[in-house]
């Protein structure tokens, strides 16, 4: 397995990126044209963190790569997993790759989430294609022995691309209607609840931020002092999470999604406006993010 290494300006905290010929080891299809792709990419797997992503060449005939959030990384096995939904020519081609195919990958790209011992009560909120970083972060915290284990709240208008079942873990802050959980997370002792407007059985009918609000309202003042929000998903959802964070005076980290050409900070095509102490600034989502403080991205509204 050949790989080349190169440094990137604007990502000194991450050190290096790797170009690898990753090997497809498994691909699973779920309802709604959703796929989980597993790749053997040992150099990426060794340094990936929750919030980082890979830039994949979906097919040799398509020069433009696609950025996909890393959902899992296992350094011991040298593999990573990504979740994607077919949108456009590139991801259509990716969905038809076969076990044993090789894909040129650049990764892990980006500055991920930062957890703090002073805020041990983590609430993870994922929506749609923003679900993968939340799975990564939840499993990472569980492996690290984090206490209390995070609460994971997921929203989707498509069937959830996981094995779901009725939860055996208590969620006293909810009514009895929202009972479904992601089985793989529940097996780790991680409480998960789901939301959708699609009338799925056992799933809260409404927005995932409704679940977050109900949970936060159930906490005492002392518990809120221990709480931090982490989120990834559509812009409207992230803005709603930022509003919740302001309402409850909580720190909040969000992972942004933008179209990217190079994903290594050279083209600045993914730049977004951020509010800093020195005033407004343009930051590149690929290497300055994708994780930012929510109050910097959505300072008001």
Explained architecture:
This protein has 301 residues and is of the alpha/beta class. The chain has two domains: 107 residues, Translation factors (Elongation Factor Tu (Ef-tu), domain 3), CATH 2.40.30.10; 120 residues, Nucleotide-binding domain of ferredoxin-NADP reductase (FNR) module (Rossmann fold, 3-Layer(aba) Sandwich). Helices cover 21% and strands 34% of the residues. It is built from eight helices and 18 strands. The strands form four sheets. Strands 13-12-9-8-14-15-18 form a seven-stranded mixed beta sheet, sandwiched between helices. Strands 2-3-6-5-4-7 form a six-stranded antiparallel β-barrel. Strands 10-11 form a two-stranded antiparallel ribbon. Helix 5 packs parallel to helix 7.
Features:
301 residues; alpha/beta; Elongation Factor Tu (Ef-tu), domain 3; Rossmann fold; seven-stranded mixed beta sheet; six-stranded antiparallel β-barrel; 8 helices; 18 strands; 21% helix; disordered N terminus
């Amino acid at each position: 397995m050949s790989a080349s290494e190169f440094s990137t300006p604007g990502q000194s905290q991450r050190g290096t990126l790797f170009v690898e010929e990753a090997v497809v080891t498994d691909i699973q299809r779920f309802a709604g044209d959703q796929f989980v792709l597993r790749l053997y990419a040992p150099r990426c797997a060794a340094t990936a963190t929750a919030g980082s992503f890979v830039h994949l060449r979906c097919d040799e005939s398509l020069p433009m790569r696609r950025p996909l959030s890393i959902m899992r990384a296992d350094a011991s096995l040298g593999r990573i997993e990504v979740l994607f939904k077919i949108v456009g020519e590139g991801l259509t081609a990716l969905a038809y790759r076969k076990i044993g195919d090789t894909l040129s990958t650049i990764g892990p790209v980006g500055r991920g989430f930062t957890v703090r011992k002073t805020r041990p009560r983590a609430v993870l909120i994922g929506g749609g294609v923003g679900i993968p970083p939340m799975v990564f972060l939840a499993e990472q915290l569980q492996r690290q022995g984090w206490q209390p284990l995070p609460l994971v709240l997921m929203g989707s208008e498509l069937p959830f691309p996981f094995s779901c079942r009725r939860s055996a873990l208590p969620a006293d802050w909810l009514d009895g209607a929202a009972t479904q959980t992601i089985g793989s997370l529940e097996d780790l002792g991680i409480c998960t609840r789901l939301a959708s407007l699609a009338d799925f059985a056992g799933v809260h009918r409404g927005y995932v931020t409704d679940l977050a609000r109900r949970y936060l309202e159930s906490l005492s003042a002392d518990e809120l002092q221990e709480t931090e929000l982490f989120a990834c998903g559509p812009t409207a959802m992230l803005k709603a999470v930022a509003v919740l964070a302001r309402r409850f005076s909580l720190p909040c980290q969000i992972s942004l999604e933008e179209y990217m050409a190079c994903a290594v900070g050279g083209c600045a095509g993914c730049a977004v406006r951020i509010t800093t102490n020195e005033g407004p600034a343009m930051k590149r989502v690929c290497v300055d993010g994708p994780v930012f403080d929510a109050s910097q991205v959505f300072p008001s509204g």
